[in-house]
Amino acid sequence: MQSIDTMQITTSQPPGRVPVTVFHMDGRLNMGSAEMLENKGREAIAGGARNLLLDLSSVVSLTSAGLRAIHLLSKSLDAASGPGSGGNAPPSAAGKSSHIKLLNPTPDIQRVLNIAGFDRFLEIHSDLPTAVASFG
């Protein structure tokens, strides 16, 4: 178990129709760790990532600072993938972001996402193959 302000983030790039970077997060996504997620996201975008999947299966708590970090990543990816950037994915169903999606949140984390309204602008998937296939 991670301490209150730490989070481990590992990455993978599973095969799919388009490149997808998966952030596997373990710990608490709060004020002490949100900056780590933001920095890791900025690094990935600077390195060319345009599709990001956040694996929330091992996130044990999610605060407003964590929600803000996810929202900032969404805006950054949409800007990096917009017109003139080489990104050409259309918005997904119901106007949800085509470039950042969430994977397998626990029931408690899903509840926080629903209360904050994140389920209205981000797709949430329960398995990795379906989530990866949903990009592009």
Question: Mind explaining what this structure looks like?
Answer:
The protein has helices spanning 34-46, 64-80, 107-116, 128-133; strands spanning 7-12, 21-29, 52-62, 100-103, 124-125. It is 34% helix and 24% strand. Helix 3 (107-116) links the parallel strand 4 (100-103) and strand 5. The protein is globular, with a radius of gyration of 14 Å. It is of the alpha/beta class. It has one domain (7-133): 2-Layer Sandwich (Transcription Regulator spoIIAA). The protein is built from four helices and five strands. The chain has a five-stranded mixed beta sheet.
What are the defining features of this structure?
4 helices, Transcription Regulator spoIIAA, 136 residues
User: What's the arrangement of strands in the largest beta sheet?
Assistant: 1-2-3-4-5
Largest sheet properties: 5 strands, mixed
Question: What is the number of helical segments per DSSP (H or I, 4+ residues)?
Answer: 4
CATH level-3 fold name: Transcription Regulator spoIIAA
> What would you call the shape?
globular
Give the CATH level 1 class. Alpha Beta
What's the gist of this structure?
By secondary structure, this protein is of the alpha/beta class. 34% of the residues lie in helices and 24% in strands.
